[in-house]
Amino acid sequence: MKKLANLTRGILKENPVLVLVLGTCPTLAVSTQATNAIGMGLAATAVLVCSNIAISLLRNVIPDKVRIPCYIVVIAGFVTVVQMVVEAYAYSLYQALGIYLPLIVVNCIILGRAEMFANKNGVGDSALDGIGMGVGFTLALLAMATIREIFGNGTWFGMAIPALSENTISIMTMAPGGFVVFGLLIALVNKLTKGKAIKKTEFGCEGCPSAAACGKLKCGEAGDN
Amino acid sequence: MDFRALVIILMSAVLVNNYVLRQFLGICPFLGVSKELKNATGMSVAVIFVMLLATAVTWPIQAYLLNPNGMGYLQTIVFILVIAALVQLVEITLKKYIPALYTALGVYLPLITTNCAVLGVTIANINKGYTFIEALVNALGSGLGFMLAMVIFSGVRSHTEASDPPPSFKGLPITLISAAILSLAFFGFNGVIENLFG
Amino acid sequence: MKKDFVLPILVLTVICLVITAALAITDSFTGPVIAEAAARRAEEARNAIIPEAEGFEELTLDGLPAAVTEVYRATNGVGYVIALTTAGYGGDMKLLCGIDPDGFLIACRTLEQSETKGIGTKAIDTLERVLPGSDAALEGVDAVSGATITSRAYINAVKDAYSAFEIAKEAAK
B 120-179 residues with CB below 8 A of C? Predict the structure, then answer.
């Protein structure tokens, strides 16, 4: 039962994007098309699962003092592998994701799970946690991208949608559309759960992977990334 | 190297291709540290400083160390390590030699290591094929653009914090929607630079 | 005390080395695939510019303008394809220009660009519609207003393509 909880937690109850509000940069940036959202989601999931497994395996080897640099190196390694594989076998995705592909390194979902879960739990649980969180991230991205692509471009996964494709609201695919849709989605989660779900109504320290590094800061004074 | 090209790079990084409002880099500090003007400026100054420093170090590494040896694939890992080390170094140096500056910026420095705007600007400088000087100017412009967005947004935040939105929109949602309006306002700069300096 | 320092640094160094080695191994697998795919894309892009060409041979020429990176000649003599890299508004722009043996432009295509979406990119679309058929004088081809930097960079690149074409023709004699 606990194993199942490790897997499903990331998908709904602790959805990294809509509930924990982590990884906002890629969420806003690549959610203009459903295909890009899936690509980004899969790339990040692959990195997340691999880094969770590696860090869980190494959790007794890595000294506490240098754990954050070690995590960063491990994550950057997996990101580079994903980068090379995507460039070799899915070049159009490589172009669509552009600079956001290497920036998976600083996606705080990944560092956050390393710090909060993988360095305390076994390999199996960490892998399940990685899959769950990755799927949650992908689904949230897909939800954003679906709304933005359908209204902004009149298509879904590139397929034209009758009526909407002649009346597109192109601002939805641009930067302001990203902010609006994300705001509305979080408001919707708030509404559905009567304000209980969102762990962070403000950007505070809980769930922040840099929290350990910024112990000097009072909570709520500074955000995470 | 003509001066006009540098002005164009600088101005377009600040206004047109604003990192926060257009390219979604550095959203977390933008939403998290923008509540008060004092924190917003402190964070921005620290970001500008680290962006310039990181570019000054990573550009030569890519051009003279990685590329000639066919190790371009180490870019991501080297850059993030350099940034992390630089931030540590700056923190220690400031603490020891300029305590006044450390009290002002010190708290923001650890947050910058994983700030995607800093890693983003160093990678973008390489991807866009900028020369060393152009890269530095682009880093400065991106940092200034970050600061501009932070400072303006802290002003907007002071109003949204005092307002009374529907309960579901309290907190993050209303902040995001005001960010959308600010981002929309920056669309007004489209084409301005090209027409001024073109 | 000393051990407190040595161990963490040692572990970090070992992890760095292991990861670097792993990346080098991955690169040895994906590197050739990436290079091959890039070569295939370049070939396809050249064919898209001059579909009548049976194949292309790369020419080695002296005195080419700085923006010109490669010059190709269609093996059946239906034209030349010139690859250029020029500084646009948002960074480097890479484009291909096809010119027929009589000096008329067949087509131009951008391969990579980071111009402002909706402004610079629109100017590129406009130019790519207007340019085909024009000769070296580029009559009636003007900078698109609102995106003068992008369009001037593009037009200058096309002019460089003509110079490369002249050099290539001269060399063939």
Answer: 127-130
User: Does A80 contact chain B (CB < 8 Å)?
Assistant: yes
Q: Is A62 on the interface with C (CB under 8 A)?
A: yes
DSSP-derived secondary structure for B87-148: HHHHHHHHHHH-HHHHHHHGGGHHHHTT-HHHHHHHHHHHHTT--HHHHHHHHHHHHHHHHH
Q: Is C69 on the interface with B (CB under 8 A)?
A: no
Q: State yes or no: pLDDT of A193 exceeds 70.
A: yes
Report CB contact under 8 Å: B28, A225.
yes
Residue A72 tokens read as: 């960063």
* Chain A touched by B169 (CB under 8 Å): yes
Give the pLDDT of residue A178. Answer: 93
Tens digits of residue pLDDT in B106-128? 777 877 877 889 999 999 999 88
Q: Which of C91, C145, C152 is the closest to B128 by Cβ?
A: C91
For chain C, positions 1-60, list CB contacts with chain B under 8 A. 16, 19-20, 23, 26-27, 31
Neighbouring chains to B with at least 3 Cβ pairs closer than 8 Å: A, C
For residues B189 and C23, give the distance between their C-alpha atoms in angstroms, rounded to a whole number.
42
Determine the average pLDDT of the residues in A196-214.
Answer: 47
Can you list the alpha helix ranges (DSSP code H) found in C1-134? Answer: 2-49, 120-130
Closest chain B C-alpha to C30 CA, distance in angstroms: 11
Assess contact for A115 and A131: CB atoms under 8 A. no
For residue B1, the model assigns a pLDDT of: 55
Q: Cα–Cα distance between A37 and A139 in angstroms, integer?
A: 9
Domains in chain C and their CATH numbers?
Answer: 50-172 (3.90.1010)
> Could you say which of C85, C90, C146 has the minimum Cβ distance to residue B191?
C146
pLDDT per residue as tens digits for the range A30-65? 998 999 999 999 999 999 999 999 999 999 888 888
Rounded to two decimals, the ipTM of the complex is 0.88
The percent helix, strand, coil of chain A (3-state, each to 5) is: 65, 0, 30
The pTM is what? 0.85
Contact C21, A78 (CB under 8 A): no
- For residue C74, the surrounding DSSP H or E stretch is strand C68-74
- Residue B169 tokens read as 């929109």
